[in-house]
Fold this sequence. Notes:
This protein is α+β, with helices and mostly antiparallel strands. 25% of the residues lie in helices and 33% in strands. It has helices at residues 22-28, 41-50, 75-78, and strands at residues 7-12, 15-21, 34-37, 54-59, 62-66.
Amino acid sequence: MQQVCDRVSIMAGGRCLVQGPVDEVLAAHQQAGVVLSVDPPDVAAAVLREAGYDVVDAGRGRLRVGGTGRPVDDPAQADPAARGP
């Protein structure tokens, strides 16, 4: 996520449940984790794992993400497709 955005808002039922920098939101909810709906989930999971996050496939295009990750200076370093074969 940090390669795409630096802030995130979690919405449910039309209400904002939490918002802030990605690393802070994930760190604050590390025990419970954060569930993200993403497309395609396999690419997002690879990028998040490369950035140091714990990722579990929650099914139906959703990922449960935990951990604090680590900064990646060059987003291409975290993108498995950018590395080539």
